[in-house]
Specification:
homodimer; alpha/beta; Rossmann fold; 5-stranded parallel beta sheet; 9 helices; 29% helix
């Protein structure tokens, strides 16, 4: 028998979905929205939940063997000094399609001049000005994990050229050309769109800085769906204000919610979407948990394992 | 030797592109933006151009054997009394990908609440309200020609359920379920999105009327990229004003440009895009012409033939 604790703001929904799967030998010990609601912890060997909530009870579970997060981000579980004697799997895989919808919503918004059309209509003006197309445009992906790979897949669907910037990997066949390490300048040259989906590691902090922004052509659009820390925020605000690049769409920020006094609220050609690009969809998560549970029972390698050493 | 007349507002660009293909035995007799600029007409056996310009000189070309239009629409060439002793091919095939960009730009705009996000940002508000996803939603395609088929292909990419309403055909494998003739009510039931790409024929006039709009659920969005005449405009304005359906995106209208006094300028939840969903892209057209020219020379069946009897 395995004993599961669910600890999430959507705990009841996860419990309902998982119980509907009637997984063999699985007992739900607790389904709580806060650690204080959990009575019995000692028997728990599986923990499913939101990353920040999980980190609060991590050291109170002597029998813990597997943690499945409902988020893609796992940074709070990787802090020095925290236990690493369990298997950690995250939810990044379910975010690819959702992130693709978000990113391509904004790419198409830009090509099809939807904001301008909306304003023309407000003025009762028949606006037949020519719009653009994604076909033949070049997208640069900073990071080609499960999210970047899905972005590449959708980019090819729309006939785009795809560049990928990664540390080592070059396994995604939808990427036309890979760039690594010192090839950052070559990667950015001539990009129409640059999308960051890198995780938060020591090597990615402020990777997108004033130097890199200066390499982009003036019509480029920057999109951040990864981590706020990857982007030097004052440098981006400056690049947008001077017209060095044409626009940006940001879902993540160094501090969230974005403080009222932040320069971004008054930065031109910037769209802010308040960390909503890819909401966790409980039914997807439950299916992922269920698939991994069957593997866990049979001592098979789990899917979506987080490597504690690689930070992602 | 074959003699081509190009008659289009983009005549010079078509001439440049076609001459760059160095097609064997092809002589460009004229490349004009207006019929009055053409001196020699008698030798012309191939005509390439914009549908309305072509219709003006159709009866002045004794040797005409093939007409390639730069538009998808060919209605002016199908009027009773006009000659039909030549092969007519149209440009509909190049519009599929462009129409897909347009349609999915607006579907994603709706799911991702982009207009609302834009307004929240204007008010310096961190708007973390939940957005939707295309995955699992149902799209109904009125017409599954080359445009509808490409819409179906993109819809499957985003994980949607696809219904197709056609007269007879059911050949597109991206359509999950086909409906014909009297099955219009079953087709509309429960649709999240309904997209019209039907041609203008006697059977499609005001197909989307008050009765059909009443069958749609209140959250449905209607998109028209086909012909303005397919849609009963006062009926749609009424359905949008009373909230019978949630929204509409219209690229085509019964009269264009949309007259200043038209009710649509003051209709709520309506987006107007001024017949720009799929601009003809000369390089695509030149490639299509070139491909068909090789077949024409060899007396092979041309691609994209218009059936004079079927009206499309």
């Amino acid at each position: 028998m395995h004993n599961l604790i669910i600890l999430s703001k959507n705990a009841k929904e996860y419990q309902r979905l998982i119980e509907a799967e009637t997984l063999p030998d699985l007992n739900v010990l607790a389904a709580a929205t806060h650690p204080s609601q959990i009575d019995s912890r000692t028997a728990c060997d599986i923990l499913l939940g939101d990353t920040t909530l999980i980190s609060a009870i991590l050291d109170q579970l002597p029998d813990l063997r597997w943690v499945q997060t409902t988020w893609a981000g796992v940074e709070p579980l990787l802090k020095p000094g925290l236990r690493r004697d369990y298997q950690l799997t995250n939810a990044r895989v379910v975010f690819g399609p959702l992130m693709s919808e978000y990113v391509f919503a904004y790419l198409l918004l830009n090509e099809r001049r939807i904001i301008q059309r909306y304003q023309s209509q407000h003025e009762h003006t028949w606006d037949a000005s020519i719009t653009g197309t994604l076909r033949g445009k070049t997208i640069g992906l900073l990071g080609v994990g499960s999210i970047g790979a899905h972005l590449a897949y959708t980019a090819k669907h729309f006939g785009m050229q795809v560049r990928g910037y990664t540390r080592l990997s070059k396994s995604c066949r939808d990427v036309d050309q890979y760039y690594h390490a010192a090839e950052l300048q070559a990667f950015t040259r001539g990009l129409d769109y640059m999308v960051n989906s890198l995780p938060n590691t020591s090597g990615t902090r402020h990777l997108v800085d004033s130097k890199m922004l200066a390499w982009l052509p003036p019509h480029a659009i920057v999109i951040n769906v990864g981590r706020g820390s990857t982007l030097d925020e004052p440098a981006l605000a400056a690049a947008l204000t001077t017209g060095q690049i044409a626009g940006a769409v940001l879902d993540v920020f160094e501090k969230e919610p974005l403080p009222q006094e932040h320069i971004f609220w008054n930065t031109p050609n910037l769209l802010i979407t308040s960390h909503t690009a890819a909401p966790s969809i409980p039914s997807d998560l439950a299916a992922l948990f269920s698939e991994n549970y069957h593997r866990f029972r049979q001592n098979l390698p789990l899917y979506h394992i987080v490597d504690f050493e690689q930070d992602y």
